[in-house]
Amino acid sequence: MSSTASGKNGTWRNWGGNVSARPARQVAPASVEELAAAVRRAREDGLKVKAVGTGHSFTSIAATDGVLIRPQLLTGIRDIDRESMTVTVEAGTPLKRLNAALAREGLSLTNMGDIMEQTVSGATSTGTHGTGRESGSIAAQIRGLELVTADGSVLTCSEKENPDVFAAARIGLGALGIVTAITFAVEPLFLLTAREEPMPLERVLAEFDELWAENEHFEFYWFPHTGSTNTKRNNRSAGPEQPVGQLAGWFEDEFLSNGVFQAVQWAGRAVPATIPAMARISSKALSARSYTDIPYKVFTSPRRVRFVEMEYAVPRAALVETLRELRAMVDRSGLRVSFPVEVRTAPADDITLSTASGRDSAYIAVHMFRGTPYQAYFTAAERILTAHEGRPHWGKVHTRDAEYFARVYPRFGEFTALRDRLDPDRLFQNDYLRRVLGA
């Protein structure tokens, strides 16, 4: 079921359940021409315009009381160019459909996040990423973009064509126009071997630089109230394919990570005092395992337990210190945190408002079970993360504004100047963009 299924009275809700909106009308254009016409009509009617994918953002980045554009008919692969090794895909295509289609063609993206429900335009516009030593976010793999701008015209951009727009629009926050197609760099399908292994937090922090340097993709989950983590290393492999066995896969991914985890979350929400004990049990329930498969089957996993999330990118060199402060804060706060903290990395990129723009980054993501009060925990975590000049994920909960972003993004003014040029009347404005980009 699509998480953006409209509720009663045309109310739209996001996946996390923490954002809702009542647009004046919803449009599902079947072509770029129809989308451009819908933009022009909204403009004539004095209505704002937002496009929304699957609603996986926890911020109100896609919310509007104007015209909500649903891209579910703008899907599929437009073109595969084996000479330039690129694929051009319609903006509303879910990542899971792109991944499966590319695999059938013997192709793959280089890197991806751990959820693949999102549309390609929603995922890239908010800066969705996985973890990587050399390979960056999904947006960093973009080679070309097509977008409908505020006057209803269609603009294409790449490193050669409209390069200033290309620099910003790869992570455009929906502020520069509505993305209608994306050209990604792809490579021949390859195999990854994943090694998942529990490891004490102190060891991970002491050896973080080596673990990062020795693996193409390193990440770990720390369970608050414990000294335990679960680490995951993904590296390219010559094979042979050794997928997770069906029973083991069901047990680890469905039963432990989703089923038991869901029950633990419910119990923790009902009786918060039990959380530290349950965290110790949860952190010990996962055992070491190794498997080899095509990239999307290794990078991504199902996420059925609904949560709310805040994630910040800090300079990679500041990760260990930041995490130690976060742990000390949880230990002395009396907070009860039932969801693990996720840590990933990305190399510096050249996208204007990418969380990794111009600096090697480490991501720290804090989560709370949906329906649990998260403000106290997120506020305390945000205080620590912003002290390290952290940059929040554009699609996850945060309280920062334009004044803060102008400080932590050296090229912030470049983005806002481009927005002034492409959308002077703020057709694509909403409350969230007013806050993060300024009026």
Helix content: 25-40%
Strand order of the largest sheet: 16-13-15-14-18-19-17-20
How much of the sequence lies in strands comes to 15-25%
Label the overall shape.
Answer: globular
**Helical stretch tally:** 14
Can you tell me the residue ranges where pLDDT is under 50 for at least 5 consecutive residues? 1-7
What is the average per-residue confidence, as pLDDT, rounded to a whole number? Answer: 91
Most strands sheet: 8 strands, antiparallel
Topology:
Blueprint: E1 12-13, E2 20-21, E3 25-27, H1 32-44, E4 49-51, E5 67-69, E6 77-81, E7 86-90, H2 95-104, E8 107-108, H3 120-125, E9 142-148, E10 154-158, H4 163-169, E11 178-185, E12 187-188, E13 191-200, H5 201-206, H6 208-214, E14 217-222, E15 228-237, H7 246-270, H8 275-285, E16 289-293, H9 295-299, E17 307-315, H10 319-333, E18 341-346, E19 361-369, H11 375-387, E20 391-392, H12 402-408, H13 412-422, H14 431-437
Parallel strand pairs: 3-5, 4-5
Antiparallel strand pairs: 1-2, 6-7, 7-11, 8-12, 9-10, 9-11, 13-15, 13-16, 14-15, 14-18, 17-19, 17-20, 18-19
Helix pairs in contact: 7-8, 10-11
Summarize the structure in words.
With 439 residues, the chain is an alpha+beta fold. The chain has helices at residues 32-44, 95-104, 120-125, 163-169, 201-206, 208-214, 246-270, 275-285, 295-299, 319-333, 375-387, 402-408, 412-422, 431-437, and strands spanning 12-13, 20-21, 25-27, 49-51, 67-69, 77-81, 86-90, 107-108, 142-148, 154-158, 178-185, 187-188, 191-200, 217-222, 228-237, 289-293, 307-315, 341-346, 361-369, 391-392. An 8-stranded antiparallel sheet has the order 16-13-15-14-18-19-17-20, with helices on both faces. α10 packs antiparallel against α11 (375-387). The longest helix is centred in the middle third of the chain and has 25 residues, at 246-270. The chain is globular.
